[in-house]
């Protein structure tokens, strides 16, 4: 890759990304959908399960890793948010607080305190160094090279999530072992290192562009729901696909039941990218909250995330899906309500049939 000369390359430590038997990786899903049971079910079926560490402190993450290890002896990964500096304009955040207050009050909640945290970054990295896991992936930024090399020292493979060629070059220069390439179809937050511009490149185009510049194993994420989509991602040069929305309705998913239903409800047929819920661009089903507040939402993550947190929690409890963040990829209507192991097995069977037929 252009970003690093052969000499620089040779100074980087490496680990091998453990390619699962079935080229299906569970997209890490912070905020409740991703559970140890879901990760275990995917790993046990021959895919690669992931635990999301985002929004959890290190102690909670440690507990979930222990639970996951009780449920599987197969490989799995843990995903961390790279903290980013956010210096909000206090007037903008105050105005947004006022704007969403009525909705919060209707739900019997108050807006939360807008704050910045590093999501317990140091403690979570320390935990993963003290008690290593097979794979660690990162989103929202480039993992620092010293963290990557410390993870290699303890035997973990490192994946950087990227949304463009420049980010891919940066992650490769930091020493990652594989790139998770996130196309614009993806549900949840855009993984971009910088949230200034919306990412609009579809997955296959992005994979093709990154493939030209990197020989690292690529994982394709965004809008992949079935074997045909996995095949398209493999044909575009990836070694595996990462699926989030396809597992949201799985039996082991911790997603809110209203969210699970909305994915296949024709009243919520459209998705859009919005900062209304968290201050960072994320794709979800279009609902009333998104329609009402999207245009005024300040670009302040995580401040806006904390501001809307009590409102989202109350909406979740009340099953009020018009006020809940309904993260979803563009092909959400194909999400199936069945055990996650069956979702992985269906992809594996269909891929095997296709290759038997020489397709
Ligand atoms: C509810 C939800 C939460 C997510 N949380 C995370 C996360 O914590 N870390 C991450 O790297 N990606 C996260 N993502 C992105 C997924 O890991 C995955 O890349 C994405 O869902 C792929 O697109 P798809 O939803 O169309 O399958 C999330 C996606 C969803 C739907």
Your description of this structure?
With 359 residues, the protein is α/β, with parallel strands linked by helices. It has a domain at 15-83 and 118-250 and 336-359: TIM Barrel. 39% of the residues lie in helices and 13% in strands. It is globular, with a radius of gyration of 19 Å. The two termini are 32 Å apart. The chain binds flavin mononucleotide. The site of flavin mononucleotide has 28 residues, from strand 9.
Which oligomeric state applies?
A: single chain
Q: Helix content range of the residues, please?
A: 25-40%
Which strand order does the major sheet show? 1-9-8-6-5-4-3-2
The main β sheet shows up as: 8 strands, parallel
SSE topology string: HEHEHEHHEHEHEEHEHEHEEHHH
- Which blocks of ≥5 consecutive residues have pLDDT under 50? 1-8
Q: Which overall shape is indicated by the principal axes computed on the Cα atoms? A: globular
Q: Helices, strands, pairings?
A:
Elements: H1 6-11, E1 24-26, H2 36-44, E2 49-52, H3 58-71, E3 76-81, H4 90-106, H5 121-130, E4 135-139, H6 145-153, E5 157-162, H7 165-173, E6 178-182, E7 188-189, H8 203-213, E8 218-221, H9 227-235, E9 240-243, H10 257-262, E10 271-274, E11 282-285, H11 288-293, H12 303-318, H13 340-356
Parallel strand pairs: 1-9, 2-3, 3-4, 4-5, 5-6, 6-8, 8-9
Antiparallel strand pairs: 7-11, 10-11
The chain binds flavin mononucleotide.
